[in-house]
Every structure is written in C-alpha cells, then in structure tokens.
Fold this sequence. Notes:
Pfam families: Asp_Glu_race
Oligomer: single chain
Order of helices and strands: EHEHHEHEHEHEHEHEH
Number of strands: 8
Family: Belongs to the HyuE racemase family.
Organism: Streptomyces edwardsiae
Structural class: alpha/beta
Protein name: Aspartate/glutamate racemase family protein
Number of domains: 2
Mean pLDDT: 90
Shape: globular
Amino acid sequence: MIEPRPLVALIHAVPTAHRIAEEAFTREFPQATVWNVLDDRLLDDARDAGGLTVALRRRMLRLIGHVMDSGARALLLTCSSYGEVVDTARSLWDVPVLKSDEAMFQAALAGPYRRIAVVASTPPAVPAAVAQLEALVPSVRPDRPLDIVTALSEEAGTSDGAEAARHLAAALRAAGGADADAVLLAQYSLTPARDALAGLLGVPVLDGAGAAARELRGLLIPDGPPASPAPAVAP
C-alpha cells in the first residue's frame, strides 16, 4: 500500500541545507512528511580529521539508523562530503537512500544535453561534482558524448540570489562555458540563484534538492499528480 504522506528524512551537516531542502520538498513533493535531522559539527569534524574517519562514518550511520528505526520511508543525505556512507546504508536498509546531488546528475545525463556546466562557489565542490558526474556516465549514457565545463565564483557564495547568479554567469562565460546546454549547481547553497541564472543564460539550471525531491516522489508516490517542471529556464 502506498502511504498518503510518506515520512522522508533529510540529514544535514549545515543549517542552510535544512531550509533549501525543505523548500524543494514543499515545491516538488508536498505529499511527503519531511523530517529534518541536523548535526552541525559533521563538516567541521571531517575537516579537522582531514576527511571521513571510521568514527565519522559510524556517526553518520547511527544518524541514518535512528531515522530508519523511527519509520523513515526514504532518506536524502544533503551533505556531499558524506555521500560515500550512502553506499553502506543501501546495503543495510531496504528503502530509497539518495546522495545529495545524485538525482540531479542522473537527470542531467539522461537529458538531451551534450555540454553540461558545473558551477560552484567553493573550490572543493567542483572536482567532487565532476567526479560524481563522470562516474555515472557509463551506466546512464555510455553511448553519447559528454563535454563538461566548470566555473567557480567565490563571490557567489557571499551574495544573494540575483547577485550570485550574475557572478556565476560571469564566471561561466570567462571559463568558455556560455554555450553549455544545461547548468548544474554543485551546492545546495546556490539554489536561490537558480531562476535568475537560468534567465541570464537562457538554459535549464538544475539544483540537487529539487531533483532529489522529484526522484523520491516518483519512487514513493509513482501514480500521483505531476510535480512542477524540473529545470528552471528562461522564457
């Protein structure tokens, strides 16, 4: 039986992801009952340790176990730094468990886009996103060519939506990516710039939280009414 309001847990490592992810679920998957779980030391402790230690992986798995034992029907891990723990979680629990940007990458690769741009405001986000995107190519689009262009604008990380969009657009043009067919936001914190960036570039701009919400909605309520259109695009 399909639950009318399935419980979806969101585990966050930064407070801003809480708001952005919840807004995405309100827009794309309003039927879900959203449960936010925040451990705001996860990123700092990983940085201090120089990466994910055995203890930090166990800590994340304890958080995942907590929401699963409490009845979560699906989980989105919004922190990309802990994405590798998802593989372990999938072997332990038989419910959908998503990495932060996994659904966005899959949607982009499955789409008609030949040249995809990845934009970010923090340097580590760029190689991490590209590595995840390239890792999915063999399974999602093995027979179609893909060109990836990246752009970084640290100014976008300290700006509001419209101003951040201008910084990202300028960085993308400077990187030679103005002709990209689609743009992927490598961080949840850039989601407020999505619509303005689409307007400036005239191409679809995809965000991780929205894509994850749509993916989980399709898995948990496959016969429900359609959600809003996936990408933001200029008129």
